[in-house]
């Protein structure tokens, strides 16, 4: 047990500038912050006494004053297709879920940005939890560190999607700090094109994301290109007009190699009428975006069924005729309740 005294400062999640400010009174050499940054995020060693390129006395001082505390895996649930959902205990309290989704070519980690979510989308189990708080940068990158360790995935050989619990652009500054650590050459060293931020579509947040020097891919959960249908499923649509959203998406994509994506979780008899396919094609063209149709994962707690295959095919034909790239994302991890929109602790396989 740690002796009574000042509570150690949690270093985990700090960037080099902040580390330098904390380390300066102990050792003014600027490169110390770079060394600590690399231990935390590239080597992912969180015990200061093991940071062997630092002087022994400094290591002891750091171990006494600081406690790098990443999230800790509390439970794991594996689905038969290899997808694994992890429940992570957060150092500041509370839990989130993150999912490792293996594929032939590459592993994908789906991570959370908030504890719970306050956006209330009708098709999402996380909505049932309500919003508790934003995650800090360490709680975000720590999910990646935990999943790397748990799955034995080699550095750089994975994708990250911010499609877990929460709305990342409502927590935009912490998400941006996490992105800087994830893409930093002395951090996780991941290419920005390997990271996708998925949002309900907050134009201000989309524009803020676009201002960063290192920009990830963007996916917008559109669900329907019809204002009334979208409002009935996503409360955020009451305050953000479709045209305003499409224009923010277009601005984001201008001059970039990767087209943004509009995502539609396809719900039988709700957002899959033929006229909605035509509206979707028109909006995607305005937004300069491609479209991803997402297979809905039925769950007893939600009153929706997945759209039949023939309707997905009809949507793809309409999109293609309008010159819009359309794809279907098949659901993964259903039997571990790890699939999209199913992260809510409420369900156990
Ligand atoms: S879909 Fe995303 S934004 Fe909507 S309630 Fe679920 S977690 Fe929140």
The name of the CATH superfamily of the largest domain reads: Aldolase class I
Mean pLDDT: 92
Overall 3D form: elongated
Return the CATH class of the largest domain. Answer: Alpha Beta
Number of strands: 12
Which characteristics define this entry?
single chain, 349 residues, alpha/beta, DNA polymerase, domain 1, TIM Barrel, 2 domains, ten-stranded mixed β-sheet, two-stranded antiparallel ribbon, 10 helices, elongated, binds iron/sulfur cluster
Description:
- The chain is of the alpha/beta class.
- The protein has two domains: 16-65, DNA polymerase, domain 1; 72-336, Alpha-Beta Barrel (TIM Barrel).
- It has helices at 16-23, 31-42, 56-65, 137-151, 172-183, 203-211, 227-233, 242-253, 274-287, 309-321, and strands at residues 72-78, 84-89, 95-101, 107-110, 114-116, 131-134, 158-162, 195-199, 217-221, 261-266, 290-295, 326-329.
- The protein has a ten-stranded mixed β-sheet with strand order 1-2-3-4-7-8-9-10-11-12, with helices on one face. Strands 5-6 form a two-stranded antiparallel ribbon.
- α9 (274-287) links the parallel β10 (261-266) and β11.
- The longest helix has 15 residues, at 137-151.
- It is elongated.
- It starts with 15 loop residues before the first helix and ends in a 20-residue tail after the last strand.
- The mean pLDDT is 92.
- Bound molecules: iron/sulfur cluster (SF4).
- Iron/sulfur cluster (SF4) binds next to loops.
């Amino acid at each position: 047990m740690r002796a009574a005294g000042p509570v150690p400062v949690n270093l985990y999640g700090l960037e080099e500038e902040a580390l330098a400010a904390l380390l300066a009174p102990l050792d003014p050499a600027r490169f110390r912050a770079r060394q600590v940054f690399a231990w935390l995020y590239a080597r992912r060693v969180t015990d200061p006494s093991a940071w062997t390129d630092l002087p022994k006395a400094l290591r002891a001082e750091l171990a006494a004053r600081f406690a790098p505390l990443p999230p800790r895996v509390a439970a794991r649930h594996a689905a038969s297709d290899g997808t694994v959902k992890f429940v992570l205990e957060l150092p500041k309290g509370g839990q989130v879920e993150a999912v490792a989704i293996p594929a032939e070519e590459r592993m994908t980690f789906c991570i959370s940005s908030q504890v719970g979510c306050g956006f209330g989308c009708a098709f999402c189990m996380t909505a049932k939890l309500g919003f508790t708080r934003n995650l800090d940068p360490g709680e975000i990158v720590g999910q990646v560190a935990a999943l790397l360790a748990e799955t034995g995935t080699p550095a750089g050989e994975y994708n990250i999607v911010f499609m877990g619990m929460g709305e990342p652009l409502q927590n935009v500054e912490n998400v941006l700090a996490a992105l800087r650590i994830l893409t930093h050459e002395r951090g996780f060293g991941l290419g920005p094109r390997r990271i996708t931020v998925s949002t309900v579509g907050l134009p201000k947040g989309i524009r803020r994301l676009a201002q960063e020097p290192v920009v990830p891919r963007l996916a917008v959960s559109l669900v329907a290109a019809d204002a009334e249908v979208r409002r009935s499923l996503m409360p955020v649509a009451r305050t953000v007009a479709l045209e305003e959203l499409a224009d923010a998406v277009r601005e984001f994509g201008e001059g970039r190699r990767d087209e943004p994506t509009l995502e539609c979780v396809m719900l039988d008899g709700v957002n899959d009428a033929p006229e909605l396919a035509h509206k979707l094609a028109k909006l995607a063209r305005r937004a300069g975006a491609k479209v991803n149709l997402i297979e809905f994962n039925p769950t007893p707690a939600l009153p929706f069924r997945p759209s039949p295959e023939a309707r997905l095919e009809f949507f793809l034909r309409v999109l293609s005729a309008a010159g819009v790239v359309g794809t279907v994302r098949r659901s993964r991890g259903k039997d571990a309740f790890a699939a999209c929109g199913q992260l809510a602790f409420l369900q156990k396989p």
